[in-house]
Model the fold of this input.
Amino acid sequence: MCLKFKKNNFIPLFFLLLSISIVACGKDKPHQETIASVNDAPITVAEFQRELSLLSKRDPAFKITRQTLEEQLNTIIDKKLLLQEAMRRGLSEDPHFVDTIRTFWEQTLIKELVEFKTMEWADRLFVTEDEIQHHYHLMQYAPLVRAAKAKDKAEAEVIKGKMAKGLPVDGAETLGPLYLEDVRSDVLANAFDMNAGETRVYEAGGGYIVMQVMKKQKTALPPLKDIYSQIKTFLLEKKKQDAMEKWLKDVKGSAKIEINVQLLKGIAGKQ
Done:
């Protein structure tokens, strides 16, 4: 069964044994069973396991679960899409070489594509004075929020009503005080534009987040002139990142991506 998407310094013993057993079954040949494909380009089990192995070495806290397997597979799919786009634009002259390239070369090629796209966007990506002033204003407050997840809009509205009345909500978390320069979530960033006591519903990750600003405390900041350039650079880099994410989402939405769900579940189940 296939599903189509629109978008430790050591490997755990069980994972090592799994890798050895798969290779052994192939009579000393790399395992070529395909776990997914991107525009007909296969992602083999061997390639998938190699990426997991590298990730485990880079991050000792990494744990193999169904969720992390899916996240890593999505990362590989994104990389394939970037490489294919780089090839289409002539950044590589030898498709066969791209298929057999090492990780460093792949990262370099993707970096070249990111720089190429950034140059394309240079004329339309800029930061206005109003945006700098607004960002500086938001930095002056640190909101304390209460947030809860909901699987659909109806449940989110029920939670919103309870929060507005000050009633307890199952699974709700209190976060903060939040500081704008530390927030990486677009949903949480909305809290800085909300008033104390206000409750809103936001779509996020296929579900909904209900967020209430419990209070906003004033923070001490240097004068705008002293951090003007830092704010401008931060906002410009964020616009570049947002533009890249939107472009990649569009490319991913039009790409032919197939995933072997049963095989993915099987690998997750053996961990």
